[in-house]
Amino acid sequence: MIEVYPVFCRLENPGFFSLARVDYGTVTWPGDIDIAPEALYERTVSVGD
Hints:
By secondary structure, this protein is α+β, with helices and mostly antiparallel strands. It has one domain. The chain contains two helices and three strands; from the N terminus they run αβββα. A three-stranded antiparallel sheet has the order 1-2-3. The mean pLDDT is 88.
């Protein structure tokens, strides 16, 4: 996702990532960074049981 949308490179910083909030069902961060729930679902990878 970072390769396509460079704005998300800030999410690699654990301190910034920890600022995540849920706003009307969407994960958001300061600076108008957000990821729609549909996009999260489509891009998830199963890590096992």
